[in-house]
Structure formats: structure tokens, C-alpha cells
Amino acid sequence: MTARHAARVTLVVFLFITVQQTLMLQLRIGAAHPDIMILLPVAAGIVGGPGRGATMGFWSGLVADLFLPTPFGLSALVGCLVGFAVGLATIPLDRTSWWLPMTTAVLASIAYLATYALLGSILGEPQMLHVDLTRIVVVVSVVNFVLAVPATRMVGWALPEVSTEGMPLSTAGLR
Amino acid sequence: MAKPRRSRRPRTTLIILVLASITIITLDARGGLDSLTSGVKSVASDAFSPIRSGVDDVVEPIGSFLAGSVHYGAVRQQNQKLQDEINHLKSQAQQSQQTQEQLQQITALLHIPYIGNLTTVPAEVNDYNSSNFAATITISVGRDQGVQLNMPVVTGAGLVGQVVEVDHTTATVRLITDGASSVGVLYATPASPNSFASAVGQGAGKPLNVDLVPSGTTLATGTVFYTSGLNGASFPASIPVGTVTEARTGLTASQETVTLQPLADLSRLRYVSVVLWGPSS
């Protein structure tokens, strides 16, 4: 990754955390608010494959953890797992199709939140399984469904071209 | 022809990142990274405070407009109601109800009856729940105002929670309803005037569960529970915590099932006070 791409990725992560910490915390439905930081590993997994998805999930998760009261490093752990899984699951799919980011964002959001709550409870925060998970999943999934395409385009702009992970990634469409 | 093999690099990357994450979580949980993570968190929060307030200033009017469009029916009804209220208020003192409520809340914070000689710092509530998985609030005072970790936070009505993160200008408070919160409480019954128990949070918006109330204890609905302030307690003594909403005994249970409604209205906090008190005080 060149310095230019590193700067772009930093810019995108900064933009996402700013929007999350300002607009998204205000958008409260019941006791739940959207979590657009999940979109970063998802988008990186789609446009960059499992390795890039995992790396993006780790670093963006660490940044998100700076602002969360939950165990430090938990978002990074779940983010890298989800980014890797998205990258792996979308290898055989046509990554330029319009529906892929939206569908993946919803499924990945559900997987992310369930894994987050489960791992959090295992790591000494049992109350994380006693939240209204359905409401949180609905709010997070709906917002991530809507923002999946712009997020994928932004991450596609930030990340360098990929040709080493054996997937037929078209340079058209998402890039 | 040889079958094409998929690169192993992504899998190695994942294993390294998972191990790194688990190491960070473990070190943080054991306190090994405490000073580092709390320092970095504090810097990040300090750096974000001006950005957050700047963006809030810009988007608040837009948000209000959008909320108004989404809730058009409710807003119309509310508008009519407010119109009536305005007419009513005009005939009296032209003082808005909201301002009066705010004034009452702030005045109540200046004269909290149960605090005694302890010093308090009033604060405004900036945000609710920075995580979907924790019941917390962010308040507008921090280290610069003398706030430190584990200090209790109250309103005029009762206990709100405890400071769990603090930076220069803001602090994060874990509400007593959070699942990780446990408060040592004291209650009185006709049979036993000083009985101790533990009030445990069940999540945002849910009542507290009280542990350690012996089976057969008679507790009337509305009985007030106070912080116990026992040696080494996390809160000073005699702060009202909540009132009993339900108390029953299971057939084979060794203790009463007691639920407690917090006295402070935790869903609509606007102003709170941090008590400058630590467990060692």
C-alpha cells in the first residue's frame, strides 16, 4: 500500500468515525443507534478481498474502540473476523453487481452484532447479551443497507487495486 | 494441468490480527494497557470534542427539520397543544415551561439534600449510550473540573451512576441500570431497620434487580433503597437509589425477588451533578 492509499484510508476512517460520533449518535430509535463503522470491513472485504477486509476491520475497530465503553479491542477482533468472512464469501460472486454491497451489509451487520454481543459476554461483560438485540440489529442493518453503496465506493477509492488474492475483481463498477 | 491454489496470505493476516486483538483485549482487561488506552482514549475524546460540537451546531437544525417532517402528524398535534399553551402562558408571566423546568433541575442540583458537605460539580448531559451494548451518558465536565474515575453522579432525585471514563472536558458515566452496574444498598423493614443488599442493573430502561434480600422479608411497594456506604463501597452513604416496584418470594427461593425503579429519571436526564468523592474519601 502506497503512502497515498494509506492517507486515503485514514481519511475515510476519520470521516466514518466523525459521522458515527456526531450524526449517528443523534439518530436514536428507542435505545439503539446506527453503527456505520461496521461498513468499513464489509466494504473492504467486498472490494479488496479477505486480507484487506480483515486489516480494515482491525484498524477501524481499534479507532471505534477509542470511543466505546465496551472492552478495548473487541471491535477490532470482530471487525477483522467479519471483514475476512465478507471477503471470503464474496469471492465467487460478481462484485460489480449493484445488490451485493447492500445484501452483504445487512447480513454482515447481523453477524457482527451477534458476534460482538457473544464475545463481549464471554470476555466478562455478560450484560451485552441482555440488550434488545433485535432492535439494535434492525436499526443498524437498515442504515447500513442504505449507506452500503456509497461506503463501498469510498473504500474502493481508498484501497489500492487488488490482484493477489485470486478473485476475479473487476476494475469497473465499484471502483 | 495443476489446480490453481489460493494465496495463504489473507489467512495469515487474519490469524495475526486475531492474535493481536486478543492480546490487546487481554492486556486491557488485566490493566496492563490501562494507562495507555485511557490516555489514548482521553486524547481522542479531547480531539473530537470541538469537532463534535461544531458538527452538532451545523446539523441540529437540519435534524430538527427532518424529525419534524417524519413526525408530521405528531408535530401538528403538538403544535396545536403548544399554541394553546402559549396562549395560556401569555396570560400569566410569558415564561416558557421548558425554561422553568431547566431552572428547577439546575436549582435542585444546587441544593441536593442528601449530599451533606460533599462538593458537587453540575454538568450537562451531552450524549446517551455511545455503545448499543452499554447504558452510559456523556457529561460536559471532566478532569479540568476535578472529576475523576469512579466518582458518583446524582440528580436531585437520586443516584444516576458512576464515572467510568474521564478526559479533560467530558466524562462517561455508567448508569445504574447498566448490566455491569452493582450498587450496595441499605433498606429498612419493621423487623430489621438496617438491612444490606445489592442492586444490580439489567440494561437501559429496565428496573434494577435486588440481590441478597432474605426470603420472607416484608417489603412494601414504594420502600426507598439508599446507598449503603459500607467500608470500601463505591458510593457514599444515604443517596436514594430507587423504590420497590415488586417484591415476591418463590416457593423454593432462598431470597426475595425484588425489583427497584430508579428514583432519577434516567431516560430524560439533562443536568446531573458529579459528587467529588472517591471510595478512599
Key features of this structure:
heterodimer; A: 175 residues; mainly alpha; Arp2/3 complex 21 kDa subunit ARPC3; globular; B: 281 residues; alpha+beta; Thrombin, subunit H; 6-stranded antiparallel β-barrel; 33% helix; 25% strand
Strand numbers in spatial order across the main sheet of chain B: 1-2-5-4-3-12
Number of domains of chain B: 2
Q: Figure out the total of helices of chain B.
A: 4
What's the end-to-end separation of chain B, in Å? 77 Å
Strand content of chain A: under 5%
Written description of the protein model:
- The complex is a heterodimer of chains A (175) and B (281).
- With 175 residues, chain A is mainly α.
- The radius of gyration of chain A is 15 Å and the shape is globular.
- Chain A has 5 helices and no strands.
- Chain A has helices at 3-26, 39-65, 74-89, 99-122, 133-158.
- The model of chain A is unreliable at 163-175 (pLDDT under 50).
- In chain A, 67% of the residues lie in helices and 0% in strands.
- Chain A has a single domain, classed as Orthogonal Bundle (Arp2/3 complex 21 kDa subunit ARPC3), CATH 1.10.1760.
- With 281 residues, chain B is of the alpha+beta class.
- Chain B has 4 helices and 12 strands, in the order H-H-H-H-E-E-E-E-E-E-E-E-E-E-E-E.
- A 6-stranded antiparallel barrel of chain B has the order 1-2-5-4-3-12. Chain B has a 6-stranded antiparallel β-barrel with strand order 6-7-8-11-10-9.
- In chain B, a hairpin with a 4-residue loop joins strand 3 (152-154) and strand 4.
- Chains A and B meet through helix 1, helix 2, helix 3 and helix 4 of A and helix 1 and helix 2 of B.
